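SEQUENCE-TO-STRUCTURE ENTRY
===========================
What this section holds: a protein sequence and its matching fold, both as plain text.
Tokens: labelled as protein backbone structure tokens, with as many entries as the chain has residues.
Question of interest: how does this chain fold, as expressed in backbone structure tokens?
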Amino acid sequence: MNNKLLIALLSCIIVIGCSKREQAPEEAAPSTETTTTADAESAAPADANSTPVNAQKPDTLLNPDINPVEQNRRMVREAQVSFSTQDVVKTTLAVDKLTVETGGFVEQKNINFQVTDVETQNIAEGKIKVFEKVEPQAEMIVRIPSEKAADFVNQLLPLMYFMNQQQYSAKRYELKLLEEKIDQTHSVPSNTRNTQLNEISRLTQMETQDRVRYSTIALHINQPTLVRERIDVNINTVARLNADNFWKRAWNGIQYGWQFVLDLFIFLITIWPLYIVLIIGFIIFKAARKVLNRFKSK
């Protein structure tokens, strides 16, 4: 009887233990799902921030709508736009075409391929391969009719890959003219005649009026760094290969040595006053020595 009770008690304990083990994974499953979801949520912002951006530019640069406050005022509008593109030369040509279509003109254009680093490699006798790290840049100043300036700037967006900087200013004609005149008073010499001052003032006024009709837009364009490869001449190697042979160099050495002897001989002749001074000094020294010896003997 006792054995039967003992067996029944052990069976109950085993059944209770198995039921607890089955409940434990079921309770742990929601916590695992919660942890996985939290990890995914924490990893999502990191993935979004670490994704490289291939192109970054706004949808619009300038508002094409004219402010009602500016309609009855003469305004001098200026803008500066800096952006990156894939090809500086093609982009400047596209800007030229767009400027003409808008009714403006190009005031200044400068394309520069700046070399920032150079490495060389010897490939043959007297020849080297040159690798240059180049940063293409372009500076442009275009003049666009003021009423079309905003549309022109917005039409530059298809040419951009990255927008780097944008500046815009609009000043009243009278204030801009006053600013230009104040700047000229500092740059014009004080002895300038009145007629010249009047002419400078008239030209300043004409220039400012032209800025009212045509807005000034300055563009800075760059593109990714390029690596150029070219073959060049190693001047040191070429000079060494084309040097004279031994016998000719030896004969030249004899001639140079003889010329050195002649130059030295001429130099020794040139300092003849020094010889006279030395002779006189030697005579005085001998005479003084004899006199001193006589005094000592007495």
User: Anything to note?
Assistant: The longest strand covers residues 105-124.
